[in-house]
Amino acid sequence: MKVFFINPPFKSEYGKFSREQRSPAITKSGCFYYPLWLIYAAARLERNGYEVEFLDAPAKQLTEKEAIDKVSELGKDAKLFVIDTTTPSIYNDVEFASEIKKIFPESVVLLVGTHVSVRAEETLEISEQIDAVARKEYDLIVEKIADSLRNEEDWRNTAGITYRNYEGEILSNPDMPYITDMDNVPFASEFIRKHLDVNDYFLPIATFPEIQIFTGRGCPFHCNFCLYPQTMHGHQYRYRSPENIIKEFEYIVENFPEVKEIVIEDDTFTADVDRVKEFCSLIRKKGLNKKIRWMCNSRVTLDYPTMVEMKKAGCRLLLPGFESGSQQILNNIKKGTKVEQFKPFVDNARKAGMQVHGCFIVGNKGETRETMQETLKVALTLKLDTAQFYPLMPFPGTEAYDWAVSKGYLSGKYTDYLKEDGNHNTSMHIDDISAEELVEFCNYCRRKFYLRPWYIGHRLWMSVKSLDDMKRSLKAFGRFKEYLIKRPAEK
Description:
The chain has helices at residues 36-47, 64-74, 90-103, 114-118, 120-126, 139-150, 188-195, 227-233, 242-255, 273-286, 304-312, 327-332, 342-352, 369-381, 399-407, 435-450, 453-465, 467-484, and strands at residues 2-7, 51-56, 78-84, 108-112, 132-134, 161-164, 170-172, 210-213, 216-217, 238-239, 261-264, 293-298, 315-323, 355-362, 386-391. By secondary structure, it is α/β, with parallel strands linked by helices. It folds into two domains: 2-135 and 138-172, Response regulator (Rossmann fold, 3-Layer(aba) Sandwich), CATH 3.40.50.2300; 182-392 and 428-484, pyruvate-formate lyase- activating enzyme, CATH 3.80.30. The chain has a seven-stranded mixed sheet, with helices on both faces. The chain has a six-stranded parallel sheet with strand order 8-11-12-13-14-15. Strands 9-10 form a two-stranded antiparallel sheet. α10 links the parallel β11 (261-264) and β12 (293-298). The radius of gyration is 22 Å and the shape is globular. The chain starts with a strand and ends in a 7-residue tail after the last helix. 49% of the residues are buried.
């Protein structure tokens, strides 16, 4: 039986819409993520003997017509279509899925993703063509629906779905339990090798070409804005064993000679320090640290000895979420970190020989123009290799969204998350700070950060030390430069 997985097109005339990242957009730097969650579900079915078709339309910048034509050609005999969605693209995604249903009326059309997980009934009310949505982590949901279709059973009994019954009523079944045996999850890299092209994907802070994987799901921390733990995977960090991860590292080294770096996309890979150390020890025993580099998300609480072990094991870069330079803001968003931890973290990472990419957000609960300036001041004080500045984009299902709605800060329009060209926008304001001011302040921060003499000298030195670093920087700058040369906003 055939199952068709689709990452649908959106605003392809402007670039590659990166649906998988935590704030979906066509980014200023050309960043484009692998559709990992779709990949894992598809890989599970393929391993279980299903014929799988997979279309990542944004990767090839396909138009809606081009994507529909391709699905029409390859989707013959498919009994199930699984279509990814996001909040900014939801109306487009539903329309695209509806067209698929019109072409294949006897097949089941299932929507997945963060948005439909928390707006299930609302999504089904947009179009009667949609059969169901899968809520939260959907690997087992898709597998169960496929099994039911293959066995000619009623797929509507599947846990974790909100669906339209035979009378047209919208009903919801109880949640599907989360996967606990993470070592039984297929390798994303095996599926990528068969169905995708690593050269289509680009992470500005990673050495090109890179490959992304997950070594765990869920996050034990409770940041009020963070999308995936609150909408899909929960707050229990369920992870693969170090031995299992090593096997995938070995597979990547053996089968992707062109790949320069592995990006571990777990929300907080360093949450379990003992596991990290065991993983690093195994990498060194296998000699993989001499064959491949890797990077991961981290908390600023990570200790120096662990950083040293990670560097020895081939870790090149850490991605911490600093978020704000104001301690009160950090407390308001339940970050669980302190501003005074920032500098020691960065200094220790540099001492250990690793680079640091800092993430900052403005527009959080309690934000003022003064706290925004505190954030910029802290960012300029830290010796970061790269940094990103974004206005808060509170997505449905997060505490930040509920707070913003309760304060009347949101427009309520899903289309306001992006500008016409697909770049990040924000649909909220903070008291007398407009959405436009938040966006322009982030532009101002980028200019102040990237165009200062220290940073330019630092990047030149890093490029002298590493040809790969030079190539990565030039590739990102080629897209990003037009945003840096614009006049900064006034303070």
